[in-house]
Amino acid sequence: MKFRIENMTCGGCARSVTATIKDVDANANVNIDVASKLVEVETTLAEDQIVAALTEDGFPPVSA
User: Fold this and answer.
1) Residues spanned by the domain of 11
2) How far apart (Å, rounded) are the C-alpha atoms in residues 59 and 14?
3) Digit-coded pLDDT (tens) for 41-55
4) Could you tell me which residue ranges the HMA domain spans (predicted)?
C-alpha cells in the first residue's frame, strides 16, 4: 500500500512514521521518500489499521 503524508517534512518525521507502523506490525517493510512525502508499506494488516495508527500519531495519510 502507498500513502502520501503531507505533514511529513523531515527525517525525524519519517522515523516517527516508521515507528508507528512497526508498532502495529513489527514485520512490516516500510520505505519512505521524505522529498515526495510518499510512504510504501508491505504488511499483512488491513489498510485501515495502518491509516488509523498513523492518524492517531498525527500523520494522517491519504492514498497515493
Assistant:
1) 2-63
2) 10
3) 999 999 999 999 999
4) 1-62
CB 22 within 8 A of CB 32: no
Q: Which residues pair with 42 in a beta bridge?
A: 29
pLDDT (mean) for 30-50:
97
* 64 pLDDT higher than 80: no
Helices (H), strands (E): how many in the chain?
2, 4
Q: How many CB atoms lie within 10 A of CB 37?
A: 19
Nearest to 52 by CA among 43, 61, 41, 44: 61
Please give the pLDDT value at position 23. 97
- CB contact at 8 A, 32 and 18: yes
Strand partners, 62: 4
